[in-house]
Amino acid sequence: RTVTQSKELNFLMTPAVIISASGMAEAGRILHHLKNNIEDPRNTILIVGWQAPNTLGRRLVERQPVVKIFGEEYSLKAQVVTLNGFSGHADRYELM
Fold it and tell me: What number of other Cβ atoms are within 10 A of residue 29's Cβ?
């Protein structure tokens, strides 16, 4: 989808599932989606990958009460759920 179509999701008035890629939630469209949804306790942020220390993704997993997005502080009121078991890397049996 286009950037414009992605930004239109900010104005949804109905329930929705937004799937957005960004490994550590440090760049890309995920930042806009988080900015517009992180302070609503009706929302859930689902993290499906490992989050490196000192990244926004890790701060979400650690449930830090306030996080910075685009240099502005936002209260983390959305629920954060971590699903382990997904990886973008091969395990030892898939390397050969």
Answer: 16
Q: What is the pTM of this model?
A: 0.81
Is 93 within a domain? no
Residues 6+ apart with CB under 8 A from 41: 77, 78, 79
Which range of residues forms the domain containing residue 43? 39-86
Residue 63 lies in a domain: yes
Per-residue pLDDT tens digits of the chain, which is 96 residues long: 788 888 888 888 787 788 877 689 999 889 999 999 999 999 999 998 889 999 999 999 999 999 999 999 999 999 999 987 766 666 777 666
How many of the other CB atoms lie within 10 Å of CB of 79? 12
